[in-house]
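dude i think i finally got it to work??
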Amino acid sequence: MKMLVAALVAAALVPHAARAQENVAPPPTGAALTLDEAHALALEVSPDAEAVAESIRAAEVGAQVAGLRPNPTAFAEVENFAGTGAFGGVGAAEATVGIELPIERGGKREARVAVARARTAGARLSAAEAAAELRIVVTLAYAGAIAAERRLATAEETLRIAQETAAAADARVRAGAASPLEQERAAVVLANAEAGVAIAQRRLSLSRAQLGRLIGRPLAEPLADAWFDRVTGYGPRLSVAIDGTLALARARSDLDIAEAQIDLADAQRVPDLTLRAGIRRAQDADAFGPVIGVSLPLRIFNNGSASLRQARAERDAAAARVHAAALRAQQAISEAQADVADAEITARTALGPALSAAQEALRIARIGYREGKFSQLDLIEAERTLADTRNAAIDAVYQYHAAVARLERLTAAYPTGGDR
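look at this
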């Protein structure tokens, strides 16, 4: 029996390879929600997008803080009181008031700002990465919802065919041309088809609800399923320049921060000056005089060289990670390109020759069954083959769009205009 159906499919492949795909889903009505609109809506309500936006704002404020100069310090001192001899009591006390002003040297403030800006660029990169991840999630949910619609249409078409087969079996049994077994067998197929419709309806509801959660509102409008039917190849595999892609941007961002940390560690080796200025009042002479001083830390135990060596080692590790990330990204892109090419071939085959052959096989089987040339089992097998082929075509197109989404995620460019 299976060999007969296989033979029918094989026979139908050649003359019907160019037959157009049969649309099993009705066209959407009303204003359909496009994939780009779904992406935009999801980005507006994404908690991840909100979190990274706050991270960017915190990093920008951090850059402002890094550019601030050290605060001066006000001081007050009282000397020569409550001692012994001439310094007993408070008659000989001297009071001094003034300020101390740290003077940063070696470009510390500029180095701090450079580190903060590198971290701000990293925060903006996180926003771009979150948007790219959200885009692939929405794309898969959008494609999944359309695929669920197509599976429901396939299940409904299978149910219609099962109803016709059951009616034909009833007529053959009443005419005495078939045994009641055919009637019972057709009833089983019909019951399974009804269950298949119920399952497809539930899965469609779940798929649309999932997409609705991503866009932040119930999904009431139809989807632009014409996008789902577009299976276009990427052509010959080309070498992708990964320097400006998100796949490499994170490692380069870490390297930028590490290099800025080297400049900061080097700047911190230069000791800062502290200027001291004030006024001293001598109690017994009731006189005033200025007090001026300068202090400079002595780099005896820690001259900053160890911190500089540590920063350089971290920079070297970050540079090595950039090289490793480039190799991994190139490999991942090559594999994703292969996946897209394979998925395209599978989708085109499933949508074209395979589907046409299955449809022709069912047509032949139904004619042969009515004329008594084929058994009911042959007809049921042909019906099952067509349903499986339709679902396989839907799965193939979904896998194609999933592969394209993954490739686009890997090759997504770092948005211009950010601090790098």
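The longest strand covers residues 94-103.
im so relieved honestly
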